[in-house]
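Listing 4. Sequential folding, example run.
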Amino acid sequence: METKHKHDGEAPDASAGYEKRDASVSSALQFGFWLAVVIVVTLVLMAWAFNYFSKIAPLGQPAAPSAVVNPTLRQLPPSPMVQAQPHEDLVDYCQQQESEVNTYGWVDRQAGIVRVPISRAMDMVLAQGLPTRPASEAPKGAAAPDPAPPTVAGGAEIQGPCAYLAPPSDFTGAATAKPTAEK
């Protein structure tokens, strides 16, 4: 499809320095003038609207200064709240769990229940054994106990939120040092 212009056939005037037939300076100036008028009118109308609505319904004090003046006005959102430093909270939690697993302490002083380190508890179980029920008292239809021993946590079996903080271990459960790169 052919496009026809009203200036087809006229040679452009090379002495002008620019293409006169495409751009009209007077049209561009008129557009800029009316654009500036619209912007100024919009700004004046917005200022008038803000003043008018602030007289009808004042907004009051901003939220932050009112919380400083009267802290009882500030209400905390319902739980669960967002953690500001989740990694540090996880490290603290894991250190607390590690401390509870490896130290002595009271669980219930009135009942005489204590907490012992896990290594000491394993030694006590090995020395005393686990309580068992005689075969004659076993419930009828109960399956025979599984002869395979349970897996002990360690190495690849460690799971949970603190697993990445645990030192690597060999198959016996003992912590091993991380290998160093040879140069």
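-- end of first protein; second protein begins --
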Amino acid sequence: MNHNKVLEVENIIKIYGKGENRTEALKGISFDVLEGEFLGIMGPSGSGKTTLLNSIATMIKVTSGKIKLKGEDISSFKGKQLSSYRGKKIGYLFQEFELLDNLTARENIILPLSLHGMTGREAGEMLKKLSWHFGIEEELDKFPSQMSGGQKQRVAAARALIGNPSIVLADEPTGALDSRNSKVLMNRLSVINEDEGRTIVMVTHDANAASYCSRILFIQDGRLFHELRRNVGTETTEEFYERIVTVLAQLGGGSADVL
């Protein structure tokens, strides 16, 4: 693994509301993400994990602290710089797929490329590679209504990766899938992370999905509660799963929060 820092989160605080309605969603969280890491973020509902992901995605502006992508402070981006960051530097994978119904799988996947100025040939090669990797070659000419949930999410994953973003942000990507399809998706993401060194940050409450990560941050009440690293090479996903479940149980009611 390359040890360059892709993402640096420095003491971020996010406060909603004022006076009696004031809520501190993030209370000074700091961590780095290295190139090629597959980082999981876990915690009970309301712990701040989605606020954290949305802050990195610049969907939410933090109250204080800094978020840097490859050394650039994204919390200060505005206008063109911001839309370029959202379009080119990050790929998104959402729980509900967010595919456009009137476009085929192929059109959905290459949609972000119109923002990137990638040429037709280059885009074609990337599309071919990703559709093979995610096993969706047969689905390329279908519309979302003709696909299963698992197929839709694999199309969405190919779309998140096609522009070669610095980092992929995944928000509960297995949340709408059954266990078989979850396993297929996590397997594919894990292979692309290991073989191509793609950096992925995933929020999940699913310990099975989290067991594919190389490291997990557990968040409770807007603070970092614990961190686990998988002993890559020696520890199986099953063994890592057991350790994750143990921490979730300590998070208090955590185990009930695991599907």
